[in-house]
Amino acid sequence: MLKAIQILGCCSSGFVWKPRSSGGLSFISVSAKPLSYSLSSGKATRMDSSFLPEFSVRRARSLRAFRASSARSESNPDGRSASSSSVAVQASAGNVRKINFCQWCGGPTKHEIPDGEEKMRAICTVCGKIAYQNPKMVVGCLIEHDNKVLLCKRKIQPSYGLWTLPAGYMEIGESAAEGAIRETWEEANAEVEVLSPFAQLDIPLIGQTYVIFLANLKKPQFSPGPESSECQLFSLDDIPFNSLAFSSMLVTLNLYVEDVKAGKPKFHYGTINKRPGTSPSDIHAFTLDYHLQS
Ligand SMILES: [Zn+2]
Fold it and tell me: Which of 33, 117, 147, 217 is 20–30 Å from 275 (CA)?
């Protein structure tokens, strides 16, 4: 079923956060005008990963109308293994039949479509509460320093030994920017200043949305955190595209390289959809749909 979606407050420049000495954030200037994307029946650009690594993306016009498909939140594989907030691309999402007990009272659940709804839910047979499942937000930083970007080599599964931007699950009680700064500190021992949002990438199949910020190092110091075996600055021509951990990182870094070579980073929105019949572990087997940029 098609649904109209409105995205408000997207900006291409002007939102600036400055970390407070306490480690929190203060909002020091807002100059961007809120934008709105009105969606209709048009179809936006599709980028197929078969173009990679050359990454020849057919551009979608900014603020272009597009059609959004409903999320396939009940058909994903279950491969989540990370115990911390670090990114687990094969995370379980939407498999309601794996919810067998109520998170509030511990009672057994039944699996039914509630009156007035369309999706199967886990419903507690004791207290009657419904366990709704919603996507998780992953936040991270694309750190620019001396015309290079900072990557971390993962020391944990999934994708052990592969490179990623510092990123992880947003926690309750923090903003997306605060979470990105925290994850960068945890994975790279790097203090960063968030400059602007760079990309929002939805992955409906696994119920994740990535929000990646451009950031600068406050001090030219970094080192591997507990979840990383190495942290390294890469020039754009040396980014290890064949050894990246996740599709989201492949998309983010390709968009960034393309933007820098064109003169200036933009803000990107897109949906990463796995190509049917491909391996969940193949990070190249996807299409980037509904790619918008401003
Ligand atoms: Zn209950």
Answer: 117
Residue whose pair of structure tokens reads 């390294």 in the numeric block:
232
Instruction: Kindly list the protein residues that place their beta carbon closer than 5 angstroms to ligand 1, a single-atom ion.
Output: 102, 104-105, 107, 124, 126-127
Q: Are 285 and 47 in contact (CB under 8 A)?
A: no
pLDDT tens readout for residues 76-133: 222 333 333 433 333 345 789 999 999 999 999 999 999 999 999 999 999 999 999 9
- Span from the CA of 265 to the centroid of ligand 1 (angstroms): 48
Q: Which residues pair with 144 in a beta bridge?
A: 149, 216
The CATH classification number of 6-72+134-293 equals 3.90.79.10
CA dist list (Å): 27 to 18, 72, 177: 7, 36, 11
Q: Say yes or no to pLDDT of 24 above 80.
A: no
The architecture (CATH level 2) of 96-131 comes to Single Sheet (2.20)
The residues, ordered by sequence, that sit 6+ positions from 113 with a Cβ below 8 Å of its Cβ are 119, 120, 121
CA distance 136 to 170: 8
